[in-house]
């Protein structure tokens, strides 16, 4: 069932999102060669606890960590590890913050040290694709308008769009209806309505769009070992531009 959120619910989510944004900004300071994603995971858990919040995905369907840390060819749901980050890596940190019952969800891909030109382009195109999709997320449009904007842009830049994982509604639990594909046709799919809260989170690959699962049952990676990037915002649909709860550059 798709729900439209009250002003109180949106305010709770905004408070959680403000903390999530602050957490990502702290992570950005710490991303460098030699740091491990397990160290980042421990930092996030401690930082959230200090601010009266919890990592909502820890324990969700048995997921064991406070963050997802997806490295290079990992598309999403990567486990934090003790492997030191290396110069030239790209790593996506995805997390959900629960602050007093309000949930906020955002993923960000970070360059580690000096990333090659194609890797930099992948990151830039993925972020721009997110904002292309966001521009279509308004009352009266359809989900296909979001997906089409993302897909047409990313593919024109020479990249592919992951099909196996989507954005979603959020609140009061992590994953609510509707699913929000990052590909598709304009004027197709569920119509967006004012008050809906969804995530848009394109995962863009430098090679084949298809994925395969690791033995841990969580981590998805590219079938051809090409790199993957992801940027995610949580938004409120309005009659005008969407309210981006997780915007880092307010």
TrEMBL record:
Catalytic activity from the UniProt record: Release of N-terminal amino acids, preferentially methionine, from peptides and arylamides
Family annotation (InterPro entries): Creatinase/aminopeptidase-like, Pept_M24, Pept_M24_MAP, Pept_M24A_MAP1
UniProt xrefs under PROSITE patterns: MAP_1 (PS00680)
Pfam families xrefs: Peptidase_M24 (PF00557)
Descriptive protein name: Methionine aminopeptidase
Annotated binding of substrate, by residue: 77, 175
Family the entry assigns: Belongs to the peptidase M24A family. Methionine aminopeptidase type 1 subfamily.
Keyword Protease: yes
Record note on quaternary structure: Monomer.
Single biological process term from Gene Ontology: proteolysis
Boundaries of every Peptidase M24 domain copy: 12-239
Cofactor: Co(2+); Zn(2+); Mn(2+); Fe(2+)
Keyword Nucleotidyltransferase: no
HAMAP family attached to this UniProt entry: MetAP_1
Residues where a divalent metal cation 2 binds: 105, 168, 201, 232
Assigned EC number: 3.4.11.18
Keywords per UniProt: Aminopeptidase, Hydrolase, Metal-binding, Protease
GO cellular component: cytosol
Cofactor-binding details, from the entry: Binds 2 divalent metal cations per subunit. Has a high-affinity and a low affinity metal-binding site. The true nature of the physiological cofactor is under debate. The enzyme is active with cobalt, zinc, manganese or divalent iron ions. Most likely, methionine aminopeptidases function as mononuclear Fe(2+)-metalloproteases under physiological conditions, and the catalytically relevant metal-binding site has been assigned to the histidine-containing high-affinity site.
């Amino acid at each position: 069932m798709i729900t439209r959120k009250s002003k109180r619910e949106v305010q709770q989510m905004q408070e959680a999102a403000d903390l999530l944004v602050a957490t990502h900004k702290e992570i950005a300071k710490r991303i460098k060669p030699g740091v491990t994603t397990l160290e980042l995971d421990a930092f996030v858990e401690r930082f959230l606890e200090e601010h009266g919040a919890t990592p909502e995905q820890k324990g969700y369907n048995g997921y064991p960590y406070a963050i997802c840390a997806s490295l290079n060819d990992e598309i999403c749901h990567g486990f934090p590890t003790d492997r030191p980050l290396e110069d030239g890596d790209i790593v996506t940190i995805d997390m959900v913050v629960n602050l007093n019952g309000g949930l906020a969800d955002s993923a960000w891909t970070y360059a580690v040290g000096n990333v090659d030109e194609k890797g930099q382009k992948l990151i830039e195109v993925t972020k721009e694709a997110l904002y292309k999709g966001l521009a279509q997320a308004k009352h009266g449009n359809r989900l296909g308008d979001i997906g089409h904007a993302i897909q047409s842009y990313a593919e024109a830049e020479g990249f592919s769009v992951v099909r196996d994982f989507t954005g979603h509604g959020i609140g009061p639990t992590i994953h609510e209806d509707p699913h929000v594909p990052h590909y598709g046709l304009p004027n197709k799919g569920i119509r967006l309505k004012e008050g809906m809260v969804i995530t848009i989170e394109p995962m863009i690959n430098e090679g084949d769009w298809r994925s395969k699962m690791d033995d841990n049952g969580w981590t998805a990676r590219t079938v051809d070992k090409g790199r993957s990037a992801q940027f995610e915002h949580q938004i409120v649909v309005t009659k005008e531009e969407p309210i981006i709860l997780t915007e880092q550059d307010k």
